[in-house]
From TrEMBL:
The gene is phnC. It holds the Pfam family ABC_tran. It comes from Saccharibacillus alkalitolerans. Signal peptide: none annotated. This is Phosphonate ABC transporter ATP-binding protein. The keyword Lipoprotein does not apply. The lineage of its organism: Bacteria, Bacillati, Bacillota, Bacilli, Bacillales.
């Protein structure tokens, strides 16, 4: 589902973010990427939906080249990729439902979504997504009235509303307490199992990675230093 071929990412200031990454992630996998701060986890994730360009190599998603895609092709690829951030990135003053509906934007012309118009089907898809993360009763609450854990579940629902093939979660639990962390990780795991959505999660705690991943990839200084099943990941720091 996702393929990295000799991928190098060098930032304009010269810093190497990724140093020759080769990876294949299969459909339906639940992969956790671990590594210390600065290891390249975020750079790797952001390269997949081309939030930034890579310097060399190629990345494929579902057989399509992200690297060579033109504007229209890239929008099509991005529709299949739901992204979840540490800081939730919700529109704070909008309702939960409005936020989740924004996951549907890629399915419509800019013109209709500019005026906040979404067909009935989109409302149903969005409410279903909220049910999957057990937060449907908050649909008409303003996003900024929710706790951090609830906001992260809304952002998961927004990703689900895209009906994506892939979910990328960049340190999704880094600002949450231990209990909420588990709820959010449980949600991601359940969604991966029930909907077969290929999932990549960046974490900096190896213990959490071991508990949830089927495969752990360890990064250090932009290189893969471990890649294997959880059972072998005892030294994966
Ligand atoms: P992680 O997500 O594992 O903490 P990052 O992918 O954020 O690591 O960073 C990898 C390396 O790239 C680090 O050395 C970081 O300082 C550097 N880096 C990240 N973003 C930028 C940027 N916009 N400009 C320059 N260097 C960056
Ligand atoms: P986080 O680890 O929470 O993702 P970072 O500190 O890695 O946050 O990055 C915050 C922002 O600063 C990101 O947009 C990243 O691209 C940028 N950044 C990170 N490291 C550098 C760097 N060495 N030089 C320039 N920008 C950087």
């Amino acid at each position: 589902m996702i393929e990295f071929k000799n991928v190098i990412k060098q930032y304009p200031n010269g810093t190497i973010g990724l140093n020759n990454i080769n990876l294949t992630i299969k459909e339906g996998e639940f992969v956790v990427i671990v590594g210390l701060s600065g290891a390249g986890k975020s750079t790797l994730l952001r390269s997949i939906n081309r939030l930034h360009d890579i310097s060399a190599g190629e990345i494929l998603v579902d057989g399509k080249s992200v690297t060579r895609a033109n504007g229209k092709q890239l929008r099509r690829i991005r529709r299949d990729i739901g992204m979840i951030f540490q800081s939730f990135n919700l529109v704070k003053r909008a309702t939960v439902l409005r936020n989740v509906l924004s996951g549907r934007v890629g399915y419509h012309s800019t013109f209709s979504t500019m005026f906040g118009y979404f067909p009935k089907e989109d409302h149903e898809i969005s409410l279903d997504a909220l049910s999957r993360v057990n937060i449907r009763e908050k649909a008409f609450t303003r996003a900024d009235q929710l706790s951090g854990g609830q906001q992260q579940r809304v952002s998961i629902a927004r990703a689900l509303a895209q009906q994506p093939k892939v979910i990328l979660a960049d340190e999704p639990v880094a600002s949450l307490d231990p209990l909420t962390t588990r709820q959010v990780m449980d949600d991601l795991q359940r969604i991966n199992r029930d909907l077969k959505i290929t999932t990549i999660v960046n974490l900096h705690f190896i213990d959490l990675a071991r508990e949830y991943a089927t495969r752990i990839i360890g990064l250090r200084a932009g290189e893969v230093v471990f890649d294997g099943p959880v059972s072998e990941a005892t030294d994966a720091k």
